[in-house]
Write a structure and sequence with these properties.
The chain has helices spanning about 5-25, 45-65, 75-90, 105-130, 145-170, 190-205, 210-235, and strands at about 45, 105. The protein has about 250 residues and is mainly α.
């Protein structure tokens, strides 16, 4: 079996996995963060587990870039910068800034996420640097690349701002959750998730690739049900929670 055949099987599997996890997570949230609960085996410090499970996205994508034969174009470098801008922060900065770093997460969740990030990094990196037709230099001026880049930047900015709002809700010694205010939190309970969804749809448009679309689709399948569970939790825990807020998409859901 050729590598490209394996690539296509993995790509199809990501779409299929997204179809499966959406209804599963709609019924029961993944057991980490505020939804962590007994019965999921050994636990690991959340900040360490997060850094470990996100690392393959950084490393595998970088290896795909290092092995590519398309370095003469500026576009491979631009795609690398976009991807690593998100994942270097998400892997090596974000976990050590969040409040409650002493919290635990199940090892099984870390392992499953690690496997997904390795596969996803491979699918996106290998497509761009091995299987994709060469992007012409004019792609930088293509409306698809420009639109995707703008969406990616806007989504990343929303994500960063929202993470900052959540961090400032509690002092380092505090453990209780509070109602977030400011930015898109005035409209949705999970502004950080909304930003990440926008970001990866931007990536899919900028790369105009099935691998990018698979990642965006999986992001929706993973984060929309979790945002709904977060929203339910906020409404249940806080009698004064703003009723006009939606879960993740402003004014819609």
């Amino acid at each position: 079996m050729s590598e490209y055949s394996v690539y296509k099987i993995l790509l199809t599997s990501i779409f299929a996995l997204g179809l499966v996890i959406f209804p599963v997570l709609w019924i029961t949230p993944a057991p980490y963060g505020r939804h962590n609960r007994p019965g999921w085996g050994s636990q690991i410090k959340a900040s360490l587990g997060w850094a470990i499970m996100e690392s393959p996205a950084v490393i595998v994508f970088a290896l795909c870039f290092a092995l590519n034969n398309k370095k003469a174009s500026i576009l491979p470098l631009l795609f690398l910068i976009m991807w690593q801008t998100h994942y270097l922060h998400r892997t090596y900065v974000y976990p050590f800034l969040i409040r409650g770093r002493q919290k635990q997460m199940p090892v099984i969740i870390m392992v499953l996420a690690l496997a997904f990030n390795a596969i996803n990094g491979y699918l996106n990196g290998r497509y761009l640097y091995a299987f994709a037709p060469d992007y012409p230099p004019s792609w930088i001026g293509n409306p698809r690349f420009i639109t995707g880049l703008v969406l990616f930047i806007v989504g990343f900015a929303i994500n960063l701002h929202s993470d900052g709002v959540l961090r400032k809700l509690r002092h380092p010694s505090e453990k209780d959750y509070k109602i977030p205010y400011g930015g898109l939190f005035e409209h949705v309970s999970c502004a950080n998730y909304f930003g990440e969804i926008i970001e990866w749809f931007g990536w899919a448009v900028a790369t105009w690739s099935l691998s990018g679309l698979a990642f965006a689709f999986f992001t929706v399948s993973n984060l929309v049900p979790r945002a709904y569970k977060h929203h339910e939790w906020y409404v249940k825990e806080f009698p004064d929670y703003p009723r006009r807020r939606k879960a993740v998409i402003p004014f819609v859901f």
